[in-house]
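Renewal narrative, Specific Aim 1. Our central claim is that a sequence can be written position by position from structural information alone. The example that follows is taken directly from our test logs and has not been curated for this report. It begins with the structure tokens describing the chain, in the order in which they were read.
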């Protein structure tokens, strides 16, 4: 059975992700207490269910601590298990809670440093939730939904679902340092050392996917050497990531604006690895 577990920080889009999986034909269960996971899988196995998606959140944080052992057990039973951990920057989460006017799941929880009559602020709830889920985050594929629309998240989840049968999905993502490093990056490479096409008026409105920008960067010896070095590093360590039972590896390439250099290099890397690996491409500032 193919099993996708969705967890993460409240407000990061777990309900959107679960809906995408439901539309893809998965049998979906929302807010399942983790200690019931094995029983649910056993029931679904008896009923010959092929695909299962389960969402879990901070309300079950104490029992989420046993999730790594449950995942190991499920894999030993022959199930294909993948974990998606959705997160976002605190300011993005605050904006979403403000827009929806919903309370945080931990809003009525009294933290150790508070008076029993004083509920935690939204920022305190988010900080507490991050601490509670830190161990779970380490075992999942992290998706940073900061500033991401629901439609964009749906598209990214669909891309991951399409890669269900791949032993490891190699994901190349371009981004702008001025908007922050993606929270979901496993490896980060800074390509701001390369000449910037932004300062050429003819190239400024274009992107790294356009031929004139590509020709400009291809003419730079440093760009070719940097791509070769990144390609060599990823290729050298990719087998080790596979042995570590990773389902996804996100390689983030950053430049100043996320429009020219990082986009070009992501496309070049994806083109190189695509014949031998399952590759996905994201351009955070363009998509």
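The sequence written for that structure reads:
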């Amino acid at each position: 059975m193919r099993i996708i577990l969705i967890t993460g920080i409240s407000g990061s889009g777990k309900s959107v992700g679960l809906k995408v999986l439901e539309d893809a034909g998965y049998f979906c269960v929302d807010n399942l207490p983790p200690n019931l996971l094995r029983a649910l899988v056993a029931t679904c196995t008896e009923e010959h269910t092929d695909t299962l998606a389960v969402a879990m959140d901070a309300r079950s944080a104490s029992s989420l601590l046993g999730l790594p052992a449950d995942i190991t057990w499920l894999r030993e039973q022959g199930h294909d298990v993948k974990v998606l951990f959705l997160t976002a920057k605190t300011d993005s989460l605050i904006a979403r809670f403000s827009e929806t006017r919903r309370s945080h799941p931990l809003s009525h929880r009294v933290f150790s440093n508070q008076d029993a009559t004083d509920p935690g602020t939204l920022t305190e709830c988010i900080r507490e939730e991050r601490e509670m889920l830190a161990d779970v985050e380490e075992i999942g594929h992290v998706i940073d939904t900061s500033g991401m629309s629901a439609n964009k998240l749906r598209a990214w989840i669909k891309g991951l679902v399409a890669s269900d049968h791949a032993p490891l999905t190699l994901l190349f993502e371009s981004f702008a340092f001025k908007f922050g490093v993606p929270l979901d990056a496993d490896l980060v490479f800074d390509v701001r050392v390369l000449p910037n096409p932004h300062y050429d008026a003819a190239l400024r409105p274009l992107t790294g996917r356009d031929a004139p920008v590509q020709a400009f960067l291809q003419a730079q010896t440093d760009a070719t050497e940097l791509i070769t070095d990144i390609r060599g590093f990823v290729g050298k360590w990719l087998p080790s990531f596979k042995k570590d039972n990773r389902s996804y590896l996100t390689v983030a390439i950053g430049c100043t604006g996320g429009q020219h250099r990082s986009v070009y290099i992501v496309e070049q890397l994806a083109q190189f690895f695509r014949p031998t690996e399952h590759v996905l491409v994201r351009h955070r500032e363009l998509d």
